[in-house]
Amino acid sequence: MFALGFLAVVAVGYLDYVTSWQCKFTVLYFIPLSLTWFIGKRRGLILAVLCGIAATSTELSWGMPYDHPLIPYWNASSRLLIFLIFTCLISKIKSQVTGLEMAVVARMNELVKEIDEKKLLKKEKSEIYCALHSTLDEMGEGFVSMDQQWRYTYVNPAAVKFIGKEADELLGQVCWELFPESSYGLAYQELHRSVRENCVVVFDNYIPAPLNRWYQNRCYPSPKGISVFFTDISERKFAEEKFRDLTDHLETVREQERLAISREIHDEFGQALIAFKLDLSWIEHKFLPVDFQLTGRLNAMRSTLDLLVTKAQNIASELRPPLLDNLGLAAAIDWQVREFKRRCGIECLLMLNDGIKVHDKEVGTTVMRILQEALTNIAKHAKAQSVVVSLCETAANDLILEIVDDGRGIEQDEIHSALAFGLMGMRERARHCHGVLTIRGARGKGTTVRLEIPRETAKEAH
Ligand SMILES: Nc1ncnc2c1ncn2[C@@H]1O[C@H](COP(=O)(O)OP(=O)(O)OP(=O)(O)O)[C@@H](O)[C@H]1O
Ligand SMILES: [Mg+2]
């Protein structure tokens, strides 16, 4: 550039020389102009001023033939001003060009860096994907991922085994088109719910024969679709079913045994005690008054016998509420509530709907046992002042038992404790009759135990 500028100055100077004397000094101003680009603004300005002074002094010393003596000064200053402006402009353009160049270089560097980072990220991503896929492939659990259109995007070997189709047959296919029968089932509803509500959904699903297996499905939605893990929980489910059957059976046996023992105590033991008492009375009447000592003993024996009779009756009633079999559920509940008031001294209000008829003995027993356990818990733990027991039927004829106390209120961890065998027993009994038991507590305000038994079970006649 410098060489070019220099050559341009020489060329213009030469042209000036060969053409006219009038403007030859102008050439001097080209020097700062052409040099400003290279030597910077400040030095360019100094040079322009120096050149201006040099040109004007030369012009004056040569005595140019102007009409007016001020013309050389006017020429010099106007040229100087123009060249000063040009010098400033050139330096400004240069600084802008330099700034632009620097910005371009910085942006280039940034782009190079971004490209490098992206490359690295892509590499890392693909490494992570590889590791993830190999982990998923090794996993015993089934795993599938689907896109937003429910097309399979990944299926691990365990899932292939479970679904019974090769990965190639599944990938890219719409799940509900491949298995249209699933479109009406629980899986369809739960998977759609997971996507709709954007939440993790866990559900157990039974696949009927020929598979006859239970699976636990865990659905994780994402903006790209959904991923589902599924675990075979058939063994656990079958064991649970067996356990439930066993519990039901034990409950039935226990109830039958209670009934038998209650009858035994009432009929055999109670009758024997009454006979004993009659014999005692006979002896009293026959041989009295013979001996005061004997009379005293006989009186003591009679009181002990009365006590024994009452105890036997109580035990028999506890084992099997006497009114349940004879007068039905409502009478049995009434008796139970009165017993509770008498024994614990806690105010207990009973609200019974008229005309409740429960023909199923099992339902009657279940309601009674749950009521007994709930009242025992109130006496043991609630510190309640009063209790309200209500038994009613809803419009849909479902049977509802509610026991509400105003005690300290059961805590959440107590409700879900693994050691709350009493509460577990209540739930088991409710489930045995296809019912639902809910327990709610409000700290300092009391506890509510609610049992709902559906009509089909409650009205079912045996
Ligand atoms: N009405 C109630 N008010 C306050 N706490 C209660 C009430 N009913 C139950 N609980 C709490 O819940 C716990 C679990 O009750 P659950 O009937 O299972 O056991 P339990 O009565 O302690 O023992 P079990 O019934 O086996 O003799 C109780 O220990 C008690 O702390
Ligand atoms: Mg209890």
Task: Describe this entry's structure for a reader.
The chain has 462 residues and is an alpha+beta fold. It folds into 4 domains: 2-107; 139-232, PAS domain (Beta-Lactamase), CATH 3.30.450.20; 239-320; 326-462, 2-Layer Sandwich (Heat Shock Protein 90), CATH 3.30.565.10. Helices cover 64% and strands 15% of the residues. The chain contains 16 helices and 10 strands. The chain has a 5-stranded antiparallel beta sheet, sandwiched between helices. A 5-stranded mixed beta sheet has the order 6-7-8-10-9. α2 runs antiparallel to α3, α2 (27-39) packs parallel to α4 and α3 (41-62) runs antiparallel to α4 (71-138). The mean pLDDT is 83. The structure holds adenosine-5'-triphosphate (ATP) and magnesium ion (MG).
For the structure shown, list the relevant keywords.
binds magnesium ion, 5-stranded antiparallel β-sheet, alpha+beta, elongated, 16 helices, binds adenosine-5'-triphosphate, 4 domains, 64% helix, 5-stranded mixed β-sheet, Beta-Lactamase, 462 residues
Short description:
This protein has 462 residues and is an alpha+beta fold.
Topology summary:
Layout: H1 2-19, H2 27-39, H3 41-62, H4 71-138, E1 142-147, E2 152-155, H5 157-163, H6 167-170, H7 175-178, H8 186-197, E3 201-207, E4 213-222, E5 225-232, H9 234-287, H10 292-319, H11 322-326, H12 329-344, E6 347-352, H13 361-382, E7 386-393, E8 399-405, H14 412-415, H15 421-432, E9 436-442, E10 446-453, H16 455-459
Parallel strand pairs: 6-7
Antiparallel strand pairs: 1-2, 1-5, 3-4, 4-5, 7-8, 8-10, 9-10
The structure holds adenosine-5'-triphosphate (ATP) and magnesium ion.
